[in-house]
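Posted in: Structural Biology > Protein-Ligand Complexes

Title: Requesting predicted complex, zinc ion in pocket

I'd be grateful if someone could produce the C-alpha cells for the following input. Sequence and ligand are given below.
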Amino acid sequence: MPTSRFTTLLILLSLIFSTPILSQSADADHIKEAVSQADVEFNIYFLAADEFLGRDTGTQELKIASRYIATWFQTNGIETAPGYDSYFQNVPFQRLREPDRGVVAFGDSTFTLNRDFVALNSERGSFDAPFIVLEYGSREELSEQNVEGKIVITATGLEGQSSPQQFFYTAGQKREWAKEAGAVALIELFSTRQLPWQFLVNFLGGDRVALYEGGDNEEGSIPHLWMNATQADIKGFLTASDAESADFELIGEEPEKFYSRNVIGIIEGTDPELKDEYLLLSAHYDHIGVVAGHPEPITSEYIFNGARDNAVGTAGVLAAGKYLSQNPPKRSIILAAWTAEEIGLLGSNYFAENPMIPLEQIVYNLNIDGAGYNDTTKVTVIGLGRTEADPEMKAAAESFGLEAIPDPVPEQNLFDRSDNVSFARQGIPAPTYSMGLTAFDEEINYYYHQVTDEPHTINYNYVTAYIRSFVLAAQKIANRDEAPFWMPGDVYEEAGIELYNRQ
Ligand SMILES: [Zn+2]
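-- Reply #1 --
Done. Output follows.
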C-alpha cells in the first residue's frame, strides 16, 4: 500500500538524515534518567555539611571527604590509575612558620625581614658568605659562573617575564638550579609594579601552607628571598659596593610536614586506539575552613561550608564518574578531586608535576569550579572561545535548556585562578565549566567565600541541569574523532605544541 510504502520511506529518511540528532538527544535523555537529582543533592548536602568544618587542607575532616570520594569511585566500578593500588595521591605539604629573625647585611647596609625582603621557602640559615650579582640566574648563567658557596643575587623571574604569576611559577625552578650549581642562598630583586610590595609581605609574611619540596628522602633546598627593589636600585648599589660578602641570618622554627590527598579514578575508554588518550575531569574538594577566632564549641555560623565552592563541582565529577563508568566513551577518563586549591592550586599543581598518567596522554581537562551563580539559564565557561571544544560544550548546555556563555569578567583573569591553569600551563587545553555567572554582583558576593554558602540555599533543579550538561559535555569531548586543541594564537598554544609534539 502506498501509505505503508510512504511510512517506510519516512522512516528510512529519518534514519539517514537524523541519526546524529537522534543519538544526541538520546544521550541527553539517558543522562537525564541516569544522573538523578537525588544523587546530586545527596553529594552536595553531605560534602558541605557542618561536620566537615569547611574542608580545610590538612584537616582530618578533609581526609574523611577524600575517603568518601574514593569509596564512591570504588563502588561505582571506577578503577585506580594503572600501576597504583589506591585512589589517593599523597601530596606532601609543609606548614611554614614566620621566621623569628631575618637580616641580610652588605657591609653597613642592613635589610630586614618583612620590610625589605620576604622568605619564599622554609629553608633557614645563618652564615657569612660571598655574594655574586647575576642577570636573571638562568640555568645557563648559573652553570657558567662560579657560584659555589655564594649567595646568588638576580632579577626576579627569567628574561621576558613580567607578571607576578610567572615569577612565582619560575621561583622553584631557579632555586633548584641555584642549589645544583652550589649556591648557598638565592636573592631575587623584586621590582614589578603589578603587585604592591605590601601585598606580598602580607601574603608571604606570616604562617602559611606550601607544597613540601625535595621529596621524602632528598635533602632540602636553599634559603630563597625576594628583596624589594622598587624603591632603590639595589643591584647598582651592590655592583658599586666594596662589600664582597654578606651576613645572612634567617632563623626560626622548622616547618611541620603533613600530607593531604588528591583522589584519582580511571575509566577505560572503549576505542582500541583512542583509549590511550585521557580526558581529565576535575574539581577541587577542599575549601577555606572556619572563621578565625570562632567560639568553642563551634557553631554553624562560623563554618565556611563551601556548597557552591566546590561541593557542586565535586558532585559533578562524582556524577560523571558514575555515569561514564556505566557508559564508557571512546577515550579514557581521569576523574580527579584536588586538595588545596584554595591555598594556591597546590593539589592540581602537584599532580601536574607528578602525573599518574603521562601528561602528553591527557588531551583535555574539563575542570568544574566557580564562585557561584546569579543566572540559572546559563553555564559560564571560563575559557569558552579558547579551545576547539566550544561546539560540544554549547550543545551540551543547550540540551538541558541552558546557554553556555564566556567569561563575563576577563579583567579578573579567572582562567588563571582555578586548577585548570595547572594543566593549561603544561599545554593541555583546559577550560573551567562554571555555574551561570554574569557579573561579580551582590548575589555572588553574598555567598562567595562566605559562611552563607550553605547547601540549603542552592537551587537544585538548576544545579542538576548544570551537572547533567557537564556530564554530556564530557561524553561528547571524549567521543570526538580528534582531541580538541587550543584556538590559534592562545597564550598556551605554544606549550601545547611542545607537549603533544604537534607540527
Ligand atoms: Zn574558592
